[in-house]
Write a structure and sequence with these properties.
single chain; 16 helices; Rossmann fold; about 475 residues; six-stranded parallel beta sheet; binds adenosine-5'-diphosphate; binds alpha-D-glucopyranose; about 35% helix
Length: about 475
């Protein structure tokens, strides 16, 4: 079996959130399980040149009104072949999807080019004539249309199935109708059976209808998206494809996130020896300008500042949490539309020096140090397809306080491996924080920490579930 991963993010080369982590780590785990994997992702300006080798493949595609050429460069790491699409529309930009002015206006073209390049890569560089195309989110979801229009009529990829993984179906690539003309596809694809979505262009919608199999990143979320309250308007489509929809809880990269051997930390630690975790805490307090106090409970938060993540709930609760004698360390950044979260957090930090630290920006190293140095971790998400930070937190003995939704509900158990709450309100969140703080330093909480740190959260146990889905997709395609 050969899997071609088509994704707008592949960590460590590109990452704005969990999808990059997942595609990177799943690819490596599949290779370990004996599956050949080629990833295809853009070479953004931030992807460095080192180790990249030219291929002789040139991708030609009409983008909007002009013919464009892109090239492919490659790099093989741990048996995974990573291909990067080189073109100015990726390389000459700050940011993956947008900059301080908002989303780029040509994202539909940029990711059409990614999909066209992935198909050309598979045709020219992959030995298997029928690879599985594993597509990630709306940026790759139109590929079944290109497969059908440009390749299958010529006899290519007749037995190649497509599997679409939904990481975040709130983002749907929904654009005005006229953008369809840029996609280089015949008019009949703009219909209810294709890209048409209530009169608009729906890039994700087309993939939901046409992929041979669908997966999403937790069993709980697979159910939620079939309900009107949780389907982002797509619930009827998900109900229609329920038999082909599998929820698979994400794993984490246990080499990158390993408290016994993490280059970002001042000291290693493990469930059997927590002395290093205490050092990590005091070093973090020093680094962030928090009062160095080994007894004060320290709550961390790392992630996108976004309504999805419950940033509102966190903001309204911080003064109360500090009032309980706890410290709080926040690391995050907001897209242009939610910049006010950054300003509000900074404003709070100015009011509570030494007790609240706010770092606006993206820092892999600090993310690791907060996971290691904190006692508790806040994830009051309004919805969460899976979430990775609660898994990192558990492994680092930092108990997650999560809203019981999506993958958070599937991975955190109240009073056993963390703390949970239900209502999407600051009041309910503070209730869970209160329970966590009341147990601070007790043997009961030490037992929860110990259990959380020993959970099996790697990819090796999950990878077989993906292989089963790929096999189902292959069968479905063969059965025609
Ligand atoms: P999402 O993909 O919805 O943003 P996840 O929890 O699945 O949420 O994954 C987020 C990933 O991005 C984690 O690896 C997290 O550590 C990382 N991350 C998010 N924001 C930052 C930041 N400001 N600095 C460093 N890492 C971040
Ligand atoms: C998305 C989701 C997040 C998930 C990640 C990786 O960004 O918001 O919950 O963990 O994808 O699948």
């Amino acid at each position: 079996m050969h899997v071609v991963m088509v994704s707008s993010e592949v960590a460590p080369y590109s990452k704005s959130g969990g999808m990059g982590d997942v595609v990177g780590a799943l690819s490596a785990a599949l290779v370990k399980a004996g599956v050949a994997v080629t990833t295809v992702s853009p070479r953004y300006g931030s992807v460095d040149d080192e180790g990249l080798v030219d291929t002789d493949v040139v991708v030609r595609a009409r983008l909007g009104t002009t013919e464009q050429e892109a090239t492919l460069r490659e790099r093989v790491v741990d048996g995974v072949r990573h291909l990067f699409v080189e073109h100015g529309i990726f390389a000459d930009r700050q940011g993956l999807y947008g900059d301080q002015n908002g989303s780029f206006g040509d994202n539909h073209l940029r990711f059409a080019l990614l999909q066209r390049a992935a198909l050309e890569a598979a045709r020219n560089l992959v030995d298997d004539p029928a690879p599985v195309f594993h597509l990630h989110d709306w940026q790759a979801a139109g590929l079944p249309a290109y497969l059908d229009h440009f390749y299958r009529p010529l006899g290519f990829f007749r037995d190649s199935p497509t599997v679409l993984t939904l990481h975040n179906p709130m983002h749907q690539g929904r654009l005005p109708h006229r953008f369809f003309d840029d996609l280089d596809l015949p008019a009949h694809w703009f219909s209810p059976a294709g890209f048409e979505w209530y009169g608009d262009l729906g890039l994700l919608k087309c993939g939901i209808l046409h992929a041979d199999q669908l997966t999403t990143v937790s069993p709980g979320f697979a159910w939620e998206i079939t309900r009107p309250e949780g389907g982002f308007g797509l619930d009827a489509l998900f109900r229609g494809r329920f038999a082909d929809l599998t929820g698979i809880l994400n794993g984490i990269d246990t080499e990158v996130w390993d408290p016994t051997d993490d280059p970002h930390l001042p000291a290693p630690f493990s469930a059997d020896d927590l002395a290093g975790k205490r050092l990590c805490k005091s070093a973090l307090q020093d680094e962030l300008g928090l009062v160095r106090d080994p007894e004060a409970p320290l709550m961390g938060s790392v992630g996108r500042l976004d309504p999805q993540k419950g940033t509102e709930l966190l903001l309204e609760s911080i003064p109360w949490i500090l009032d309980q004698g706890a410290q709080v360390a926040v690391l995050g950044s907001a897209a242009a539309a939610h910049r006010r979260f950054e300003a509000e957090l900074r404003g709070l930090a100015a009011r509570f020096p030494g007790r609240l630290s706010v770092t606006v920006g993206f820092s892999e190293g600090l993310a690791h140090r907060i996971e290691a140095g904190a006692d508790l971790f806040a994830m009051p998400s309004l919805f969460e397809p899976c979430g990775l930070n609660q898994l990192y937190s558990q492994r680092y003995g930092t108990l997650p306080i999560v809203r019981r939704t999506g993958g958070l509900a599937d991975s955190v158990e109240e009073g056993r491996t963390g703390y949970t709450f239900d209502a999407p309100t600051g009041y309910a969140f503070r209730g869970a924080v209160h329970r966590a703080l009341a147990q601070h330093g007790t043997p009961a909480q030490a037992a929860i920490r110990d259990r959380a740190m020993r959970l099996e959260v790697g990819w090796s146990t999950v990878v077989g579930r993906y292989v089963e889905v790929f096999e189902r997709a292959i069968e479905a395609r063969r059965a025609g």
